[in-house]
Amino acid sequence: MKNLNRWVYAIVGIIVLLLAGLVYAWSVMSKSIGASRPDWTAAQLSLTFTLVMAFFCIGCLIAGILAKKVSPKIYVLFSGILFLAGFLIAGMTGTSPAMLYLGFGVLCGLGAGFAYNAVMSTMSAWFPDKQGLISGILLMGFGLSAFIVGKVFAAVTPSDGSNAWQATFRVLGIIIVIVMVVCCFFFVKPGADFKPPAAAEKKVMREPASDINSAAMVKKASFWLYYIWAILISASGLVLVSQASGIATQVGTAVSDGNIATVVGLISICNGIGRVIFGALFDKKGYRLTMIVDMIIFIAACALLALALTSDSFLLIVAGFMVGGFAYGGVTPTNSAIISDFFGRTNYPMNFSLVNTNLLIASFASTIAGKLYDASGSYLTNIFLMFGVIIVGFVVFLGIRRPKGDK
Asked: Distance between CA atoms of 53 and 363, rounded to whole angstroms?
């Protein structure tokens, strides 16, 4: 397998992340689930998304800790098994959301985390010359998953109060485990003598600012300031992702479920595009401009959505989702590229896993958003929450500095 072109591995990585990223389709899935359980509150449903994001981080962290002992093949295979078990268990949900929490929230979250770390750490080794770009391309698959899976889920699963979603969950689990078994054989790392293609060698590659392990990294102020920034900006994105169907439905009361799913899916499409563009921007212009542009675009999205909700303009909802999805696309490739650029590649799997735990905290924003809606009856409170955390993010950003030469 090591004789294959490195872009073949990248394509397989995209396929794996396309499946693992279906956890982001929760906003569409929750419509059918919520319709079948009308006695569940928005906060109860939102807790599922909080759990899946939290256990995604835990799975990613475990994979990082054991990266030097366990082959990425095993992680991809185990991820498929966890998805199968998770969807089967979630499909047995009764009147209580406990099985949904365990199956989709815990097991599928862990599976997504294992797959995510395996893909990002393996492909980072194959593309030392294109850290931002490859992160963006791979994570495009992770982001587009919500659109593709969301559209398929909405097409085959009516939100008419029936339990049809449970059968869809079981089919999803079977499909994922089959694809993961096939893809796991492509997860091999380059040998010690690997060098990027000649065309890439002509380009002067920027060396990392330092090359340190996780213990040294967590002593750096630059790590913690970036970590806080990632929590804040991720929280804003997760509020949008988790509440998108509700936001669209509040304005588009006469819009069909299929069209709502399409509009919500625009977040994923623009998210995927944003990941590639922001990854390339990082490679060319560095972290400062990338982060500033990302926050400005996020604020524009908040303005559009606030105006849409106050004027009942569905067209502005569409625009707000597209701009917000694009902005959220800037967070994940920046996480990957900044860890490689600030702290080196030797300990990348573990260092990357640590920075991704920001989602453990950020994921609670979706539950908070659900409670705000329950209390106010309007998603405008969610937009204010998004705007507030981005402003705080601007303040934190001012203190972030690239480390100076620890090797």
From this structure: 6
